[in-house]
Design goal:
The protein has 109 residues and is mainly α. The protein has 3 helices and no strands.
Length: 109
């Protein structure tokens, strides 16, 4: 009777346990900033990468901060995922309308 269990040694020898990364349709990139250490400052490329990540992070955190500080924004107290999705969608809509009003006022001035 042949065993269907494959040993660790067989896997490492055959290489069949490694996924084929070319089949993945997207590339997963880190959004974590690099950090300089004592006697090892950031390179210019790392500093540029951190600036790019900071631009995205700043915009997103302002949106989440505004939604969290809005009335009813901290907790989603609903029963069921469908109602939770609707509540979050309505909060997003309210944020977008508030943002539109601010942008239109700035354009008119």
């Amino acid at each position: 009777m042949a065993s269907s269990v494959v040993s660790q040694r067989q896997l490492s020898q055959s290489g069949s346990h490694r996924p084929n990364l070319r089949k993945i349709p997207y590339v997963i990139r880190s959004r974590i900033h690099k950090r300089g250490r004592r006697n090892c400052p950031l390179t210019e490329a790392q500093a540029r990468a951190n600036r790019g990540k900071s631009k995205v992070r700043a915009r997103i955190e302002h949106v989440f901060g505004a939604q969290e500080n809005a009335p009813g924004g901290r907790l989603v107290r609903t029963i069921g995922i469908v109602r939770a999705k609707i509540k979050i969608g309505l909060q997003n809509l309210a944020y977008n309308i508030r943002r539109l009003v601010i942008l239109e006022r700035a354009a008119a001035a």
